[in-house]
């Protein structure tokens, strides 16, 4: 790959190694340039947001203090507040209303510039545009419209119709980008003034080019609108001298399977499955059948209807506890309600037996039974659930809690309620034995 004389050492390295080093350095330089360009474009976007929020701040402080109006009205009605530091502070508080770190970082770095603009330009009634002052001239992160790059170079095609009005200049309005035209759909070329394949030139002069899409039947290129303008036809289309490219109806050749029907589309066709009532068909539904499927019959209107085998043949499903159930194109033998099929015989479903397991007792009753020596197997919760004292106990507890809530401000009322509660608990323990 390298000539023999390139094997000589350069500071201990071969020419091959030096060449690799140079290539990697160039790649790194290009990558860093792209990263720097993206950072610059991001700062430009942040600066535009700051300017926009500054203008909103002027309006909001104007309205919130006195009502709003033109410059002369502002001078007359707002007085010293119009250019005061108080108003500036109120505006600057909302310059980063989205709360982004990038905005706060940029504003912190260039806060003095905003203040200088306020006192040296705005307060002095100079008609200085904040965007030009801050983003273009001083921060130098943006460019005027239709310019790009570090030196704000002009976009291809000039600042009146860059990219012939058919695309966007890469990096326009920022200190980044390549300046190359990114053409809209259908356009190509350095100035986006040429038509791509699949489009034709409908109008053109020194400054304007209008491209329109070719007809769907055109293979690649065309000279005018419609199927007659095609230079060649796509597959599925047939060229006609008078009409141009015409769609071929592939369905005339029956390309689909027997249980499918064909639908023609532009330049192609689609096969769909027939209705379940049809063996073959000409379209969708049981009224488009050429022949009915087994279990269906065709009436005088060429409609395939389902045969009800259960009504037609009374000998079907005569097994013990069986019934016949009609289905589309067939039938099924099913067991009667309350029966299940086992070894091809319908057997009655056994009724569910009540569980012999005793339900769990509430913790307080279980503890009471342990203390009194009662055996678990002789006691059931069913015996206790209907006792008025049990239900009344829980009701009294609930009422006690509610009463304490409303009587929280009266110590005497709480004492009386507590005494009644003690009496109730003693009564309940006595009557629950």
UniProtKB/TrEMBL annotation:
InterPro entries referenced in this protein's UniProt entry, alphabetically: DUF3456, EGF, EGF-like_Ca-bd_dom, EGF-type_Asp/Asn_hydroxyl_site, EGF_Ca-bd_CS, Furin_repeat, Growth_fac_rcpt_cys_sf, LE_dom
Keywords on record: Calcium, Disulfide bond, EGF-like domain, Membrane, Repeat, Signal, Transmembrane, Transmembrane helix
Domain EGF-like: 151-193, 306-347
Molecular-function GO term, any one: calcium ion binding
Segments traversing the membrane: 412-430
Origin: domain of life: Eukaryota
SMART domains for the chain: EGF, EGF_CA, FU
Cystine crosslinks: 183-192
Pfam families in UniProt: DUF3456, EGF_CA, EGF_laminin
The UniProt record lists the keyword Transmembrane: yes
Endpoints of the signal sequence: 1-37
Record family assignment: Belongs to the CRELD family.
Protein name (database record): EGF-like domain-containing protein
Organism: Candidula unifasciata
Organism lineage: Eukaryota, Metazoa, Spiralia, Lophotrochozoa, Mollusca
